[in-house]
Structures are given as C-alpha cells and as structure tokens.
Amino acid sequence: MVFYKSGLKKNVGFTASKKVGNSVKRNLARRRLKAIFREIEHQLKSGSYIFVAKRKIDEMDYKSLKKGLLWSFKRLNCLEK
Length: 81
Hints:
This protein is α+β, with helices and mostly antiparallel strands. It has 2 helices and 3 strands. The protein has one domain (2-76): Ribosomal Protein S5, domain 2 (2-Layer Sandwich), CATH 3.30.230.10. It has helices at 23-40, 62-76, and strands spanning 2-6, 11-16, 47-53. It has a 3-stranded mixed β-sheet with strand order 1-3-2, with helices on one face. The longest helix is centred in the middle third of the chain and has 18 residues, at 23-40. The radius of gyration is 12 Å and the shape is globular.
C-alpha cells in the first residue's frame, strides 16, 4: 500500500507491522520496498511517500510487487510524464 501527498521535496517512509510476520519477514518486506523505490525514484514527482507492507507481501515475487506498485503510482497520479 502506498500513500502520497504532493510537496516540494521527496520524503519517503517504509513500515511493516507485526501482522506481516516476524522480524526477518518485516525487514525483508521493507528492503524489497526500498529497492523498488530506488529503481523508480527518478520517475516520481516530488512529495511525501509512505509505503506500508501488508500481510501477503512475502508470498509475492519481486516482479509482481514492482508491477503492483507502478500501478498504484499511476492511480495516484504521481508519475512524471
């Protein structure tokens, strides 16, 4: 899940609650979200982004997770054209 609020500079936050799993699964989820953000950061508009890991994130492969996040960014209208 991604939250976006427009602003003058890019701020980003990553979170995963205990519902995601133990500390190993939570850290893996955050690392995967950070890696995807670093890959597409140059395509994003300035603003604040909050990434929230959900329960099934550890069952998703990297490619489908990235595809889902790109779809979310398009829906939020925060991709630069």
